[in-house]
Amino acid sequence: AGSQLREIFDKINNLLSGKSVVSGGRTVSVTQHPQGLDFVYYKLAEKFVNQGEEEVASHHDAAFPIAVVASGIWEIHPRVGDLFLAHLHKKCPYSVPFYPALKEGTSMEEYQRMLGYQVKDSKVEEQDHFLKRMSGLIRLYAAIIQLRWPYGNKQGPHPHGLNYGWRWLAQMLNMEPLADVTATLLLDFLEVCGNALMKQYQVQFWKIILLIREEYIPRIEAITSSGQMGSLMRFKQFLEKCLQQKEVPLPKGALQSSFWKS
């Protein structure tokens, strides 16, 4: 509910502002230790990113309530935003976007980690699980860049707004696609913030959508084996529907104004 989100936001904001906050039955304050504030900035940013790969990966709608709080905290406490991006880029290099290259002397295990895979006891996580986590992280990022905390003063621009999403999209299309990963993440990204990008960039947005359909999809097809076609087919269907209807639908789970009255 909107009222619950406000409580959570206020508690985090109070903690970062140096006020005393009750947590787990104890009263805590960042002023209790010289590095208290730095530690809390770091852990909070990490927590937001973890929610992307856990909560959002399992429940796509969760991206919006988490993102609106993260965006509002970022606006008042910019350090949290810097650390959020650092944690996000480390966990999901595709959010930069960047595809790490295998360098001489790097072990395969280390390289898998650089690509964002979880490696435990020399076992690499399943591709499905990996894609699910990456989807959660990209969806959270795509939600943050379009959302603002509705109770802020909103004098300045969004601390990390849609222009960053536009840049991400353009950079993705300038890179050679990766089988499975590229189609999955482009679909996640456009499902979540395609509607906002469409409203902001209008004609330019539709030009980029046509470019994806005419030029980029054939490049993804060229490197995709028959067993990996699922994500590509879903992405193609999504684009065709948007082009037919001349509209990108509002994302499922987007917060309506009525939400804040709840």
From TrEMBL:
InterPro entries for the chain: GLE1, GLE1-like_sf
One matching Pfam family: GLE1
GO molecular function, one term: translation initiation factor binding
Subcellular location: Cytoplasm; Nucleus, Nuclear pore complex
Organism this protein belongs to: Nycticryphes semicollaris
Membership in a protein family: Belongs to the GLE1 family.
Name the record gives this protein: mRNA export factor GLE1
Cellular component annotations (GO), alphabetically ordered: cytoplasm; nuclear pore cytoplasmic filaments
Entry keyword set: Coiled coil, Cytoplasm, mRNA transport, Nuclear pore complex, Nucleus, Protein transport, Translocation, Transport
GO biological process: one example: protein transport
PANTHER family to which the protein is assigned, alphabetical: GLE-1-RELATED (PTHR12960), MRNA EXPORT FACTOR GLE1 (PTHR12960:SF0)
Function, as annotated: Required for the export of mRNAs containing poly(A) tails from the nucleus into the cytoplasm. May be involved in the terminal step of the mRNA transport through the nuclear pore complex (NPC).
